[in-house]
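Technical annex, item 7. During the second reporting period the consortium partners agreed on a shared format for inverse folding records so that results from different sites could be compared directly. Each record opens with the tokenized structure and is followed by the designed sequence. A conforming record, contributed by the partner at site C, is shown below for reference.
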């Protein structure tokens, strides 16, 4: 168990705009290995441009941090705490119990009927998908706080497209689980990836000759998948080193040269 600063690249790989609260890397208990994501609204009426201190420092009756990420109305995801946050409280979801088992996001919405902007919903979906990918849990492990406990109603209210949190959480989970090009590539052999890359490059070349815009390079998508794998390996090495009270560099020095070279490519 540890604080999870490596999640940043996973969020970036999903196209999210990020903000960083000073000290987020060491904030929250290191007794933390999330296998689910609890979605909240912050119940704050005023629109904020940086996360309110309440989410970081907590309340008189509840110590901070009160979330791991804060989601602004414009879709910006703020990193608040890389360690365990006090957000879910008493309750459970599909066998998960306690804040050490779930990542928590407080989204900017008062919860009194304000419409949720589409860019905020899109970011909530991509954030959930990034966390599910990074921590290796399924979309079914993403829940509303109201599903975690009957004491809460959040997140609540209408989306701009007519859906509502309280009626359409299954739809939200389906969006999180939607297959992507990266998921497809993960099932391919290196030979298949190389062949497909060549085909896409050829199609892009033909399209450019006729003035058609090219697709995003497949190589970028492949490299994003490779970066994700390398980050997860480094996280495991760091966790093992911490548990054994060893220098992570010592563990890496015992790896095969080609493995060390691959890990050195992490951004």
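Designed sequence (site C submission):
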């Amino acid at each position: 168990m540890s604080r999870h600063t490596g999640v940043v690249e996973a969020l970036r790989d999903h196209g999210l705009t990020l903000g960083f609260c000073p000290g987020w890397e060491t904030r929250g208990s290191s007794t933390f290995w999330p296998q689910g994501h609890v979605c909240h609204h912050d119940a704050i009426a005023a629109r904020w441009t940086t996360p309110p201190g309440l989410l970081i420092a907590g309340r008189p009756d509840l110590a901070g941090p009160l979330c791991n990420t804060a989601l602004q109305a414009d879709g910006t995801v703020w990193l608040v705490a890389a360690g365990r946050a006090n957000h879910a409280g008493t309750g459970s979801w599909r066998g998960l119990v306690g804040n050490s088992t779930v990542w928590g996001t407080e989204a900017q919405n008062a919860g009194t009927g304000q419409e949720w902007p589409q860019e905020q919903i899109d970011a909530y979906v991509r954030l959930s998908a990034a966390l599910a990918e990074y921590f290796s849990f399924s979309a079914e492990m993403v829940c509303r706080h109201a599903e975690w406990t009957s004491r809460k109603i959040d997140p609540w209210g209408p989306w701009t497209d007519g859906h509502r949190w309280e009626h359409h959480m299954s739809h939200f989970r389906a969006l999180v689980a939607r297959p992507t090009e990266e998921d497809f590539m993960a099932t391919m052999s290196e030979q298949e990836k190389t062949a497909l890359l060549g085909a896409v490059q050829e199609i892009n070349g033909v399209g450019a000759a006729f003035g058609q815009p090219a697709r995003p390079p497949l190589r970028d998508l492949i490299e994003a998948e490779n970066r994700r794998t390398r980050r997860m390996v480094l996280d495991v090495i760091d966790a093992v080193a911490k548990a054994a009270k060893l220098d992570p560099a010592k563990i890496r020095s015992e790896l095969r040269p080609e493995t060390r070279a691959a890990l050195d490519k992490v951004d």
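Confidence is low (pLDDT under 50) at residues 206-214. The chain has two domains: 7-178, 182-263. All partners now use this format for quarterly exchanges.
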